[in-house]
Automatic annotation (TrEMBL):
Pfam families found in the cross-reference section: KduI (PF04962)
Protein name: 4-deoxy-L-threo-5-hexosulose-uronate ketol-isomerase
Domain of life, source organism: Bacteria
Listed EC numbers: 5.3.1.17
Family that this chain belongs to: Belongs to the KduI family.
Catalytic activity as recorded in UniProt: 5-dehydro-4-deoxy-D-glucuronate = 3-deoxy-D-glycero-2,5-hexodiulosonate
Involved pathway(s): Glycan metabolism; pectin degradation; 2-dehydro-3-deoxy-D-gluconate from pectin: step 4/5
Role of this protein: Catalyzes the isomerization of 5-dehydro-4-deoxy-D-glucuronate to 3-deoxy-D-glycero-2,5-hexodiulosonate.
Keyword field: Isomerase, Metal-binding, Zinc
Amino acid sequence: MQTRYASSPNEVTSFNTEQLRENFLIENIFTPDTLQFVYSHYDRVIIGGILPIGDISLPTYPELKADYFLERREIGIINVGGAGSIEVEGKQYILHKLDCLYIGKGNKQVVFKSEKAAEPARFFLLSAPAHQKYPTTLMTSSEASPVEMGETKTSNQRTIYKYIHGEGIKSCQLVMGLTVLKSGSVWNTMPAHIHDRRMEAYFYFDVPEEQRVFHLMGQPAQTRHLLVANHQAVISPPWSIHSGAGTSNYSFIWGMAGENYTFTDMDFVAIKDLR
């Protein structure tokens, strides 16, 4: 498990491309039978992925100072690969592509499996500290009340799936869902916004191999960008916008944690005010 420290907005204005990528881009999310985790000092969130060929158990780490991973944490998981299952304290949950599983604090045994090794599951994970136990809950993509938004004339026609939030799966502080852009649409989260009381993580998937997403970050008047490939993630600080455009359509998981649990807690920035 890698550790990423927090950076101030003043510091980031002087970062070159390499420094931006070292601090905010997670390039390796999926490696067969290997857990890839990054511990961020923004709201103590852990971001990672599991690509199980065999069975993989969720371990603990010395950095957590805990007897097991979920002793004082909760976790949200979305599958972006083939069919798989997650066993929590002996109970099995089947996840197809775009399905989500929330696991609350206090669960000791968590095992990840793929239905077919040739078409493995790809579990993206987001974990945050938790003060209360909520029940383990599975939500399929069809149960996430998909909402159609955007227009072709602004290149942002998309479907939004909300899983973990105040009116969906209950959690202590995790908020999690995903967005699928329609063919011909490339813009996400524009007009941009910030939410100073919680960080966010973006995980891009279904990006064609030769295509990229220009992920915009930074303060509204001091924007920077990261070139992001398929199955890569971005750590977004509370003071930063998180928006982007791709060279083709794509999908992304958005996950948040922090002081505020309300999905609509956003401070929008007019396009004309971005710099």
